[in-house]
Amino acid sequence: MKKKKKNPTFLDNLYREYKVVVSNENTFEERLSFKTTKIGVFLTSFLYTGALIVSTICLIFFTPLKEYVPGYSSLELLKSTTEQSFKLDSIIKATELNNQYYSSIKKVLIGELDTIAFSRDSIIDAINAEKLSSELSPSKEDSLLRIYIEEQDKFNLTTSQLLIENKILFQPVQGEITQNFNKKENHFAIDIAVDEGTPIKAISEGRILFSEWTVQTGYVIIIDHGDMLTSVYKHNSALVKKQNETVNAGEIIALSGNHGTLTTGPHLHFEVWKNGRPIDPMQLFNFK
Which of 15, 25, 28, 118 has an alpha carbon within 20 to 30 A of 178's alpha carbon? Predict the structure, then answer.
């Protein structure tokens, strides 16, 4: 009696050996042959695919190619973005400050703002009040002595200069006052009669905000001295300094003249502005 042949199982099929032969198509000459199994083919394919995936991941995420992956940002890009954000914030702040400067210049040129009462001691009083408020309950005698000393040291007025808020202010020019400061007539300046071509000096160090020709006031120059202090010089015949240049106290910035439709003779139209409001220059300088 013949023994019944056992059917091969799934594992038997996986481990069954097969011979793979590579031969010449025309001559059928055997060129290459090797034995393998189904499980061997599966494992080889799996390992090859895994190695290919791992090498692709390493190639993309550990080389500059990672920057081309959608949604991925490199460290350099993040750093550059942060720096650009800070720069943009600085530019916005600088633009806001420039807009305030230009607005102040416009108001200075057309005299839109109302004037304020100002005395020679007002700035010192404000500074003293701020300092005294931060002190720890000073005595009355100490406060009076402090105010007296600071007034003597900080406000030493002469015929040519004035020490105010740690600034030495120089008279822009020597001459006779032909028109005084008059807020009711919107004349927020004093007019000083001088010969045409007389050097005009900066009252303090600062930066040139405006240095251009205007139809009504001729050559105009405006200086920002910091601490919200601005000086304006109009009806000049020539400008020595340009916009955004820095000047020192007492440095020549222009030459006086008789230019513009609003002038009636050679003179300097001189304005001083503090905190965006005009100040009577006669309260800061002694032109006598």
Answer: 118
